[in-house]
Amino acid sequence: MQRVSPSRSVVRILGTNISDNAAITIDRSVTIDATNLRLASFGNVPIFNVTSGYVTFEGIAIEGVVPTEVAIQGGTATTVRLVESSVQRMIINTNGGAIEARAVAVREGQITCTGGTVVIKDSSWSRSGVRGSNCNATILDSYFDDAGEFWVSGGVVRVLNNVFVVTSEYLDLLNVSTLGTGSTFAFNTVVNTATVTMSPVALYCDAPTLNVTSNIIAYNSRDPIRGCAVTNSLFDPPAGTDAVGNTTADVTTFFADLVGADYRLASGSPAIGIGEATIVAADIAGLTRPSPAGSQPDAGAHEAP
User: Fold this and answer.
1) What is the DSSP secondary-structure string of the chain?
2) Largest Cα–Cα separation, the chain
């Protein structure tokens, strides 16, 4: 086991090979500049075990012929930040601590938060999900391709300005229960690209405190919403009665290029001008909401220019 206990604020791990099942314990606040860090994984998982302090991993770029997996574990007295990094497989677990992932690209991953907080912002995750128990979760301005399941029970959940793309006609995307006051699911674009119309659930609520507004739900499902009161949102026709009180239209009119996975709004999209005011000040790309000023914002992650 290698232990990082620095007396200075920045530790640079350059050109280092960390082999199978290596465990690095970090026991105080430190920034790890991981430029050129190499992880050699052939079945086991290199582990960073953060036991205390405020730890930042910067610039991790991990690739390999064998899909390389990294695990970061944090305890109750820790804040673990992953910034400006690219990882094939990432597992982050915290028990009472804090997790922040900003400007991170992950091809496959899982974040588990028991107590504490998790923040995902300005990131791109594929085949990834979040599981939280009594965890305050904030997911902002991020893109989830071939998304996995998001299950959160307890805490305050804020999910704003994200794109979730699901490829399975069976996947229930977001399941929330017993949430705290202030929980919001707003200005998200949720798309299921499966060609078979089934009844997967885009959003399941056992949480009357969740404010669900100003989303695009194009889930190709006969039952995309369960238990949630939805307002100011746009649905595709299979949603049926789940879309009552909202807008329903042909999904081919929603986006700039549905087939090409360009989920910016098409000219004349029915999402334009139906969003709720004052919730967010900008869209996923940083464009000011509403545009033009004085109008109503657009539903979904993207504001029409």
Assistant:
1) -EEE--SSSEEE--S-EE-TT-EEEE-S-EEEE-TT-EE--SSS--EEEE-SEEEEEE--EE--SSPPEEEEEE-TTEEEEEEEEEEEEEEEEEESSEEEEEEEEEEEEEEEEESSEEEEES-EEESEEEEEES-EEEEES-EEET---EEEESS-EEEES-EEEE--SS---EEEESPPTT-EEES-EEEE--SS-B---SEEEE-TT-EEES-EEE--BS--EES--EES-EE-GGGGGGGTTSEE--GGGTEEETTTTEEEEPTT-TTTT-SPTTS-SB-TT--BSSSSTTSPPPSSS----
2) 61
- The rounded distance, in Å, linking the Cα atoms of 29 and 97 is 14
Question: Which amino acid is located at 172 in the chain?
Answer: D
CA distances from 300 to 5, 14, 129, 235, 304 (A): 45, 42, 20, 11, 10
Residue by residue, pLDDT tens for the chain (305 residues) are 333 333 333 333 433 444 444 556 665 566 665 554 444 444 445 556 666 666 666 666 554 434 455 667 776 767 777 887 777 777 888 888 888 888 888 888 889 899 989 999 999 999 999 999 999 999 999 999 998 889 999 999 999 999 999 999 999 999 999 999 999 999 999 999 999 888 899 999 986 789 999 999 999 999 999 999 999 999 999 999 999 999 999 999 999 999 999 999 999 999 999 999 999 999 999 999 999 999 999 999 999 98
Kindly report the number of other CB atoms within 10 A of residue 229's CB atom. Answer: 12
